[in-house]
Amino acid sequence: MTSPSHAVRPDGLAEIDAIIAAHLWREGPLLPILHAVQAAFGFIPQAAHAPICAALNITKAELHGVISFYHDFRDKPAGVHVLKICRAEACQAMGGAAMSAAVLAKLGLDWHETSRDGRVTVEPVYCLGLCACAPAAMVDGKLKARVTPEILLAELGA
Amino acid sequence: MKIYVPRDAAARALGADAVAAAFADLGHQVIRNGSRGMIWLEPLVEIEENGMRRAYGPVAPGDVAGILAGSVESLGPVENIPFFARQTRLTFARCGLIDPLNLADYEAHGGLKGLRRALEMGSDGIIAQMKESGLRGRGGAGFPTGIKWETVARAAGPQKYIVCNADEGDSGTFADRMIMEGDPFSVIEGMVIAGLAVGASKGYIYIRSEYPDAIEVMSRAVRICHDNNILGRVLHTTHEFDIEIRVGAGAYVCGEETSLLNSLEGKRGVVRAKPPLPALEGFMGRPTVVNNVISLATVPVIFEKGADHYASFGLGRSKGTMPIQIAGNVARGGLFETGFGMPLGALVNEIAGGTATGRPVKAVQVGGPLGAYFAPAKFDTPFAYEEFDGQGGLIGHAGVVVFDDAADMRAMARFAMEFCAVESCGKCTPCRIGAVRGVETIDRIAAGDASAVPLLVDLCETMKHGSLCALGGFTPYPVMSALEQFPEEFAGRREAAA
Lengths: 158, 498
Description:
The complex is a heterodimer.
Chain A: H1 12-23, H2 30-41, H3 49-56, H4 60-69, E1 81-86, H5 89-92, H6 96-107, E2 120-125, E3 137-139, E4 142-144, H7 149-156
Parallel strand pairs in A: 1-2
Antiparallel strand pairs in A: 1-3, 3-4
Helix pairs in contact in A: 1-2, 6-7
Chain B: E1 2-4, H1 9-13, H2 16-25, E2 30-31, E3 45-49, E4 52-56, H3 64-69, H4 82-85, H5 103-108, H6 113-133, H7 145-154, E5 161-166, H8 175-182, H9 184-198, E6 202-207, H10 212-227, E7 232-233, E8 240-247, H11 257-264, E9 288-292, H12 293-305, H13 307-311, E10 314-315, E11 318-319, E12 321-328, E13 334-339, H14 344-351, E14 361-366, E15 373-374, H15 385-390, E16 399-404, H16 409-423, H17 429-446, H18 452-466, H19 470-474, H20 476-485
Helix pairs in contact in B: 6-7, 6-9, 6-12, 8-9, 8-10, 9-12, 16-17, 16-20, 17-18, 18-20
């Protein structure tokens, strides 16, 4: 889902304009625009703010409010790999807390952190709908059930 | 010979894609069906020969050659597996049985019959049927669906909307995900019928971003329905209905209907005060039906088989069936659809076989992160709306999460508060501040401060009565139920407290 962290290309503005134009007909187009921008750039670049505000007639503060409200939207690139580990109750019932603690310890990261070499970002997620085959995680958009620290670390090549 | 390998997210997360590839490598065509709901048997493969479907599971790629050669023992027909045989499948009748994206298969199994009947009835007839069915909102609130539709039908407005709430964020629940991946046309058919009832021509399905498979299957299903005149001009009549898929962005609170509407409009997903009801002033300020996925997916079968048939199942005011999801530390986890009224203990012990670890069940949480914990002493509670309410709980979206005796109930209570703090939209003070204070207060209890216990009780009262929506209002359920049933875990300092 999340594309690797590539920088805003010189043609980024044109791409942003094209994304806005593609969604502007919708009722309430902001979330579809933000999803599309993030899919294209890996995050919501600052350069996207002004054209989005102008097209939707909203203030910078309103846009910032929306971007910062939702856990999915990033204002800077994530690591090459994004690991989301479920912290919710069903996964906890199957040892999820100890499992994620072991992964974080091995990676030397806390929740929401990216490794210094930019390889891995670890984020909590609250339910992936894999509650009858817990604990669950998502590695680069791919769902994994009944995970162990070993399985997740192997997925990351760590 | 037909080969079925689920494309359900749980099956895929357990390796179904590799199994399907192994069949393909041997030159076989594979149908990617939904899950039959027996998650402990996933990937569950079915082979259909001479009109008979035999199941195998859990299947690894290495088993495939043996299955084809007949040297692997079959589980027999799915319908004979006790977990499946004890169910009453109305909403999920087709899930796992058919190819989810094959419209002919859908129609061959009763699909579109309900819509055709509804088209003959007209708005008043449809609403009367819905009321007679007794269907109540399956998202958790349990509000009668027919009355909601009637309110929107009577509201004046040039444009009305049907919004399908597919922001299934409750831990322990996956029924919405399963039906969207396994029988997406039923959701669409339900939305079209709702549109006919209230006079809406536009629908939105708001799916959480954590469900990539459901987003993909629903999007393809909507396109197929467009190409086949189910959407657009409905079955070549003068009625028009269109559906757009929208994707959430990782905010639990957007499962609350007014937050969802704000999110759909492109705003922060903060809760709106009610009134006005969304039925009168919903999406874009216009009359809007907001229904859960399962409520809408149940509509077609009500019209296919009749409201009286649907209402003949259940208990008291909880009519019909409920797809109960049994999860967590459980031997046989999955989706079990049954008429309301089965005792909780029968579900946990007989149907699901107790814990996966083989240790005693300590408690189950019913209804997601805002649902109460039930210790085995309450296991005779019948699974139904009023009955759970009477025991200080709620059935919510009917997720049951099982914990064994290793569970730390004070830690679970703390987690409930922590989750509320993380996901609070910030609109009302009891939720925004209360959840943070709740974590701190439970930490004081953990540190040995017994005087903090009455403070926690008081805080829960404030949150329960003072919050705008269920997030702040129901977080006290898991907290108080843990405190009341396991008071010893809140007494004094714990050596191992982190």
